[in-house]
Amino acid sequence: MASLAKKHTMIENMSLLGTHVRMGPVGLWVYASSYLRAAQALEPGPDGPRWPAGYGSVCRALELSLKAFLSVKGRTLPELAEFGHDLQRLVEDATAAGLRDLVVLEPSHLVEIERASRYYIEKVFEYPALAVVSGLYPNYPKTPDFDSLVSAADLLVSSLREPCLRA
What we know:
- There is one protein chain.
- This protein is mostly helical.
- It has one domain (2-8, 19-166): Nucleotidyltransferases  domain 2 (Four Helix Bundle (Hemerythrin (Met), subunit A)).
- 60% of the residues lie in helices and 5% in strands.
- It is built from 8 helices and 2 strands, in the order αββααααααα.
- α2 runs antiparallel to α3, α3 packs across α6 (107-121) and α3 (53-72) runs parallel beside α8 (146-166).
- It is globular and about 50 Å long.
């Protein structure tokens, strides 16, 4: 897996006709924005659950927007690949790198991101894990609040647009 991640992080900078573009910030932001739109489109009506595609999409939007911010701060794509899908670690590193100067996540956002992190790392939103979602494994926190995760992702994506495009 590590070699595959490395393979896909090789092209980080592009120059075309004298214009230099760092692909990390803008590329990650574009993908984060796309996953956010997918999550928003998957919001259910009153009779449908948000599980699992909506959660997976919004968590991916969170992951990629936090990685976009860290890329703006100078992290390379191979360095960002080392985070894997650990949302909690990404929030901590982004906060230490000055995320609050651009985006102020609400305490409720942080609680729900932390709650989602374990599910997301372990791919519970991607693969059938009925024992986990049914509560048979008490080490998993309560299912995260979808609306709060979407709100956090929307705040990150909208706030990071200009910094990522300027990087």
